[in-house]
Amino acid sequence: MRSAFCEKLTSRPFAVNHVVPLLNEEAFALTLQAKPALVSFALGDASVLVKRAHEAGIRVMHQVHTVQQARQAAEWGVDVMIAQGSEAGGMTGTVAALALIPQVVEAVKPIPVVGAGGIADGRGVAAALVLGAQGANVGTRFLASREAAANEAWKQMVLATESEQAVKVAFWRDLFPSSGRGAHEVSPRAIRTPFIDGWQGRHADAQREAEQLRAEIMRALQQRRPHEVVPFSGQSAGLIHETLPAGEIVRRIVTEAEEALERATRYLK
Ligand SMILES: Cc1cc2nc3c(=O)[nH]c(=O)nc-3n(C[C@H](O)[C@H](O)[C@H](O)COP(=O)(O)O)c2cc1C
């Protein structure tokens, strides 16, 4: 796989992500063969997968939403921890990044921590570093990048959204209950749609109609129109006003972070 496919895409180090409760064994075996610089896991008990990755000589990063999950992942021997706050897009817990990041840093020292959730510009990266993280994991900002696979309508929704419109989809767990593999307690954050507004707070109804709702969501995903049902997005959408090339986003973030850190230290004097 590495020579036939990955090396065509890049000669630089790359990472591969696997969502533990949805793990595809064949894809994971191919990942190990491809020997990426790093494998990242999310949303469940990755203890066995961490061991397999280490045996293949690959470093591991794991996403956590609570201090308890961080302590557990430290016991598995993960090399880098992502502390993802509840502001994040996609599947999230309930603790905000400002509280979570420093607690995870303390709990897993000396394992390096990457902060995530609500970070869309250099000010956010500076904040994560000040909280003790060694880096930042940015998701929603890259949804509105030129290279992102999301369709144009979804990208436009991110640009037009205020933070309070990116809500936790509470009835998701009625449709997709925990699926084993030590699944983390999470639900998605997405931009409000008539579909979301129509089912929020109606847990008993959602459970009764679960089969039909799951089919509706899967149909939208297959037809590449997820923005009509659950357009995953974090609260940082409120900070994002234009679609940019991914490289430009990274360059701006680095410059802004340097400025933000310098500005912050001036206030201490
Ligand atoms: C549309 C979308 C899809 C995501 N899918 C995954 C995924 O498959 N695996 C994963 O580990 N994290 C996933 N995430 C979470 C991101 O990796 C990242 O931790 C998160 O977006 C950071 O918060 P932010 O959105 O506030 O920047 C996703 C996020 C978004 C917005």
Structure report:
With 269 residues, the chain is of the alpha/beta class. The chain has helices at 2-9, 25-34, 47-55, 67-76, 97-108, 122-130, 140-143, 152-160, 172-175, 194-199, 203-208, 210-222, 246-266, and strands at residues 15-19, 38-42, 59-64, 80-84, 90-92, 113-116, 135-137, 166-168, 187-191. Helix content is 45%, strand content 14%. The radius of gyration is 19 Å and the shape is globular. Flavin mononucleotide binds at residues 17, 19, 40, 42, 63, 84, 87-90, 116-119, 137-141, 143, 232-234, 236.
What are the salient characteristics of this protein?
single chain, 6-stranded parallel sheet, 13 helices, 9 strands, 45% helix, globular, binds flavin mononucleotide
Order of helices and strands: HEHEHEHEEHEHEHHEHEHHHH
Could you tell me which ligands this complex binds, including any ions or cofactors?
A: flavin mononucleotide
Discrete helix count: 13
Placed side by side, the strands forming the largest sheet appear as: 1-2-3-4-6-7
Radius of gyration: 19 Å
Q: Roughly what percent helix?
A: 40-55%
Distance between the termini: 55 Å
